[in-house]
Amino acid sequence: MKQQAWDLARLIYEPMQESDLDEVVAVEQEVYPHPWSRSNFSDSLAQGYHAWVLRAQDGQLMGYFLVMGIVDEAHLLNVAVARPWQGKGLGRLLVNQAVALSRGLGMESILLEVRPSNVRALEIYQRYGFAEIGRRKGYYPAPNSTREDAIVMRYGL
User: Would the pLDDT of 116 be above 80?
Assistant: First the structure.
């Protein structure tokens, strides 16, 4: 599917609210084999993490991301694109927004963890310029009571 150049001015881009969580959790459960829980999102909002949603003009949730700032480093905690909108460049758009937000907060770099099995996300991050800086062994839960490593990636701001 051909990627689309999105005009952010034609979309609804706003801070995530508690009222968004039913939709956010539904997307999370649809796109991830081991999704965040509603309380993960609610706790992140309560902690003041930077959480944003992206909606189509008709209000349909297209995607979201959450960033936690620590001193001079941002941590991209979660980013997702709703299944109907995947493959259209929205993953890159959301990463770009997370990077812009982090720059605006005065951060020097942005870190993230990604599963090696999440090939689509890994490709987006690599194309964007994130570099692998390490691995966290057995970081993620995986099928059949196993664990999957996390690739730790960094992007200098």
Answer: yes
Strands of 34-105, DSSP E: 50-55, 61-70, 73-81
| C-alpha closest to that of 151 among 118, 108, 128 | 118
User: How confident is residue 5, by pLDDT bands cut at 50, 70 and 90?
Assistant: low
CA distances from 3 to 66, 89, 92, 93 (A): 23, 5, 10, 11
Q: Name the burial class of residue 66, with classes exposed (0-12), middle (13-18) and buried (19+) by CB atoms within 10 angstroms of its CB.
A: buried
User: What average pLDDT does the chain have?
Assistant: 92
pTM: 0.89
Backbone angles phi, psi at 52, to 5 degrees: -130, 145
